[in-house]
Specification:
The chain has 292 residues and is α/β, with parallel strands linked by helices. The protein has eleven helices and twelve strands. The strands form three sheets. Strands 3, 4, 5, 6, 7, 10, 11 and 12 form an eight-stranded mixed β-sheet that branches. A two-stranded antiparallel ribbon has the order 1-2. Strands 8-9 form a two-stranded parallel sheet.
Length: 292
């Protein structure tokens, strides 16, 4: 049995189609089908259900793929370990970051890391934590930065700092606000919020629901820079990490206060840590200490 057979099987299962899998693998569909058939013959089991519109693993195929994926992860990590250079003269790191943390952490962290390790290629994917964790498990990312209280059982965390969410207004608007606002007063303000795909928006929604008030949402966006620009230029307020506050923005206290969120580095349990990953972890911890 060749490793190629297993990779082909995984591709068909992932794509749900021989055609799309063949395109992704850059092989002909007949050749791909033949390789899968050879694997099934060697194992003496039907691994794929070809009867429906989409190709799906059979029960036996799912059991086999579960173990095969883990084996492929180990083999890929072994290949990276061979290529890994401990003096960091070459290397790469695949990083996933939640949008809210990326808005204030990635710039100083990347600057610090590249100043120390200019030959390491850093690939950054900004996406929701719900997307980062499966990518870590599937070995599509080496590290993630997200929130430690949102992780699944297969994810290991390294604490960084406590992220405080706050009501943020432009400095012109701040002069009109009381020093401390109630939840009802916050709800009456015209708000520019992230859409519900963001964890900080879901936190805000829970805050208003617990207070029994309905917020006045004037603008929704999937862009943190857009919200910051609107708040800086208008009387709109937003709810984001207090760390996004820069020139022209002020955080206003609320009672009750918004929840604190523990930010953390995210790793797959038992994942191989390359020299680049270890160096990045150390840099992240140093930069995070400056935020506390």
């Amino acid at each position: 049995m060749l490793l190629r057979h297993i990779r082909y099987l995984k591709a068909v299962a992932d794509h749900g189609s021989f055609t799309r899998a063949a395109q992704a693998l850059h092989v002909s569909q007949p050749a791909l089908s033949q390789q899968i058939k050879e694997l099934e013959d060697r194992l003496g089991a039907q691994l794929l259900d070809r009867s429906g519109r989409h190709v799906r693993p059979t029960d036996l195929g799912s059991a086999y793929l579960d173990r095969a994926r883990r084996a492929l992860h180990e083999l890929d990590e072994g290949a990276r370990a061979i290529r890994d250079v401990e003096d960091l003269s070459v290397g790469s790191l695949r990083l996933g970051v939640t949008p809210s943390i990326a808005s204030y952490l990635i710039e100083p962290l990347s600057q610090r890391f590249w100043a120390r390790h200019p030959n390491i290629t850093l690939s950054i994917r900004v996406t929701a934590q719900e997307e980062i964790e499966p990518s870590l498990i599937e070995d599509e990312l080496d590290l993630g930065i997200g929130f430690g209280d949102m992780t699944g059982e297969h994810i290991e965390t390294i604490p960084l700092f406590i992220d405080r969410v706050a009501l943020i207004v432009g400095r012109n608007r701040s002069s009109k606000c009381a020093p401390i606002l109630s939840a009802a007063e916050v709800a009456k303000m015209p708000l520019a919020l992230l859409d519900t795909s963001f964890s900080v928006r879901r936190l805000a929604d829970s805050y208003f629901q617990a207070a029994g008030v309905r917020p006045h949402i004037a603008v929704e966006s999937n862009s943190i820079p857009t919200l910051i620009g609107l708040v800086r230029a208008t009387d709109l307020a937003t709810i984001l990490s207090v760390k996004v506050c820069g020139e022209g923005l002020t955080a206003v206290r609320a009672n009750p206060a918004f929840e604190f969120r523990p930010s953390a580095l995210l790793l797959r349990h038992g994942a191989y840590r390359s020299a680049a990953a270890k160096a990045f972890i150390a840099t992240a911890q140093q930069v995070a200490a400056e935020f506390t």
